[in-house]
Amino acid sequence: MKRLIILAVAALFATSLSAQNVGIRVGGNFEASYKYKLSEGSFAEGNLGLNGWYRGLQLTATYNKYLLETDIAGLHLNIYAGGGLGVAYRWNDNHKTDLGKMTGYKETDGTTHKHTSGLLFGVVGQAGAEYQVPGRPMTIALEYRPMLGWVTGRYAGTGFSNDLTTWKKSRFYTPGLFDLGVVVRYKF
């Protein structure tokens, strides 16, 4: 698994050498961000990183259109929106239950708690505002990127429920609805 993660991160950075914007995104996730201008009014964005709602690796790709590009008193501001797809792998070995018990260990009464793991496939929406720093090849953006999808594998809980003691094999993924992030990118 570690080799797969290292290979995926290396591939992202290798392809980013020809990118127009490379940076980091911090919020619901911690990600490497890659933005490539497709045409005058659109761009593609790819993000790879650690999911903050559970232990996992997440990859998203979106196609975005600029809704507003404006210069106000020398400040360049872009507002954009778009959509795309996302995939993630979850390996939450230390998930706490409502009772504060850590999974994956044996209690004194002999009860064994299980690990959570699984794959997530979903659709991604994105809306953001981007500011070009004057005189610097840097942009700063505030993005809302909800991801809604289906998790397969073993997990605890259901949807919005806090019942983390019930083990299921798949579920509807809802924590991705709360993914707000700040992005800082170097512009080539």
Topology:
Elements: H1 2-15, E1 21-27, E2 29-39, E3 42-51, E4 56-72, E5 75-90, E6 117-132, E7 138-144, E8 147-156, E9 167-173, E10 180-187
Antiparallel strand pairs: 1-2, 1-10, 2-3, 3-4, 4-5, 5-6, 6-7, 6-8, 7-10, 8-9
How would you characterize this protein structure?
The chain is mostly beta strands. Helix content is 7%, strand content 58%. It contains 1 helix and 10 strands. An 8-stranded antiparallel beta barrel has the order 1-2-3-4-5-6-7-10. β6 and β7 form a beta hairpin. The longest helix is centred in the first third of the chain and has 14 residues. The two termini are 32 Å apart.
* Strand content range: over 45%
| Spans where pLDDT lies below 50 across 5 or more residues | 94-107, 156-165
Assembly state: single chain
Mean pLDDT: 76
Count of alpha/pi helices: 1
Adjacency order of strands in the biggest sheet: 1-2-3-4-5-6-7-10
N/C terminus separation: 32 Å
Number of strands: 10
Give helix % range.
under 10%
Largest sheet: 8 strands, antiparallel, barrel
Q: Rg, please?
A: 19 Å
Q: What is the SS-derived class?
A: mainly beta
Coarse morphology = elongated
Order of helices and strands: HEEEEEEEEEE
